[in-house]
Task: inverse folding
């Protein structure tokens, strides 16, 4: 982040803007009737959804240190995506007490230095995100951030009056962008529904009398790819292979193709143009996702995370792809999967038993052509929608960049100086650390010591003893 800031601005770490130390939430198991605690899903782009909560197994007294208040900034401690870790949002009006969980960190700032809403917006900027994403650590595929990293995140802070103008301007621009993005999302869902309707109508569940209704196993040959093994990472016959990460719906991504030794078995696992590949292991709604291999990349094999379908002579590979895409969108494959370690698997045996309609070759060609025409139109619409979303994202980044470099709203001479405010806060903190603590008077060490003191001074237990040594204590006025 550039330190070349407008007059009146200051560049400071988050630690300097805190009104109290950062605090992690607490892990609480669910319990009916317990004290409410937020879920991580409560963190939204436009604020904290306080309705996203569960009942936790703790009493109100235990939850009190973790209660959220209006103006608190909550952020995620960890995520499976580097892009999402450390994302945060501001708490709005709180109607009923609710605490925050161990998956969040609570940030409370000095409101005489920085507005909570300004913090929420500057936290979305590319410069702040770069600091966070460059500092996170990963364990077992989970990206995490801690309090020390957060305290060191540097942010540009303008005077409060200018912060308010920035927030107002950004909210107006971003609200209009959000409306456009929602409309683009609605249009994208309509295109997805259209694509599904095309496949379901051209490959009907009940085939015509002139069609043959058979099974996948009867319509072609099914083979499982070669299992990967550390011993085959190097060898004399290294060849590229495709895996689940390369196979998308009707698309093969060859940007990350790995190699393995196929000594003596390459011809068995080598792909031929016209082979249809299906994901053997995936998330349940994506298992069976098919793509047609059209010869690229050349001389490539496949692993056992994929199934290969090689159609018989009276079945067009393009028609087989249509059938499999129809089954994917109709969730037909989901009825055949078995789940192990959270991964759904579609075995070759179960795939072979799935129904497979076969029209006459001439009808196959006509349906394939019609499907390509309609889906080409859908693909064109989808590309246009994606371009619109990309432009909206670029515009959002440009707005944030202008806002936090002082170029979105004007600077006013009467706004004051954020650096002066920060310096005052730092002086106050330093003074509070140097202030001497009042000495606490010592009490009697015990009843025997008190009795001994009374006897030594010659006083009775009921009399008032006068100390032999006077100790002067100073207290702050």
Result:
């Amino acid at each position: 982040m550039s330190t070349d800031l407008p007059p009146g601005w200051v560049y400071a770490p988050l630690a300097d803007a805190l009104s109290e130390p950062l605090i992690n939430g607490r892990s609480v198991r669910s319990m009916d009737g317990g004290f409410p605690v937020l879920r991580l899903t409560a963190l939204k782009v436009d604020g904290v959804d306080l309705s996203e909560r569960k009942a936790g197994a703790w009493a109100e007294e235990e939850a009190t240190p973790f209660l959220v208040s209006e103006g608190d900034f909550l952020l995620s401690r960890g995520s499976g995506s580097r892009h999402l870790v450390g994302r945060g949002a501001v708490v709005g009006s709180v109607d009923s007490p609710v605490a925050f969980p161990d998956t969040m960190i609570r940030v409370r700032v000095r409101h005489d230095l920085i507005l909570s809403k300004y913090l929420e917006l500057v936290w979305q900027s590319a410069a702040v995100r770069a600091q966070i994403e460059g500092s996170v650590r990963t364990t077992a595929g989970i990206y995490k951030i801690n309090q020390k990293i957060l305290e060191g995140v540097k942010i540009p802070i303008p005077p409060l009056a200018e912060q308010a103008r920035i927030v107002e301007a950004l909210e107006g621009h971003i609200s209009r962008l959000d409306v456009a993005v929602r409309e683009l999302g609605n249009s994208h869902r309509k295109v997805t529904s259209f694509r599904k309707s095309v496949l379901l109508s051209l490959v009907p569940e009940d085939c015509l009398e002139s069609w043959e209704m058979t099974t996948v196993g009867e319509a072609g040959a099914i083979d499982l790819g070669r299992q990967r093994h550390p011993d085959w990472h190097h060898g004399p016959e290294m060849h590229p292979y495709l895996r689940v990460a390369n196979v998308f719906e009707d698309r093969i991504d060859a940007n990350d193709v790995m190699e393995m030794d196929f000594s003596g078995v390459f011809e068995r696992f080598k792909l031929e143009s016209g082979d249809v590949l299906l994901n053997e292991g995936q998330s349940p709604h994506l298992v069976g996702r098919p793509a047609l291999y059209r010869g690229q990349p050349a001389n490539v094999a496949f692993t056992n995370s994929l199934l290969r379908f090689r159609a018989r002579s009276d079945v067009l590979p393009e028609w087989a792809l249509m059938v499999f895409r129809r089954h994917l969108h109709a969730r037909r494959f989901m009825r055949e999967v078995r789940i192990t370690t959270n991964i759904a698997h579609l075995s070759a045996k179960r795939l072979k038993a799935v129904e497979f309609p076969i029209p006459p070759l001439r009808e196959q060609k006509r349906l394939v052509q019609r499907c390509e025409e309609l889906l080409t139109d859908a693909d064109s619409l989808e590309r246009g929608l994606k371009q619109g979303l990309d432009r909206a994202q670029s515009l959002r980044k440009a707005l944030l960049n202008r806002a936090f470099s002082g170029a979105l709203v004007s600077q006013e001479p009467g706004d004051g100086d954020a650096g002066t405010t920060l310096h005052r806060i730092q002086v106050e903190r330093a003074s509070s650390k140097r202030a001497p603590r009042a000495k606490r008077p010592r009490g009697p060490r015990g009843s025997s010591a008190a009795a001994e003191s009374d006897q030594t001074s010659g006083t009775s237990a009921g009399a008032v003893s006068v100390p032999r040594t006077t100790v002067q204590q100073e207290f702050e006025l």
User: Anything to note?
Assistant: The longest helix spans residues 160-202. The mean pLDDT is 89. The CA atoms of residues 115 and 314 lie 70 Å apart.
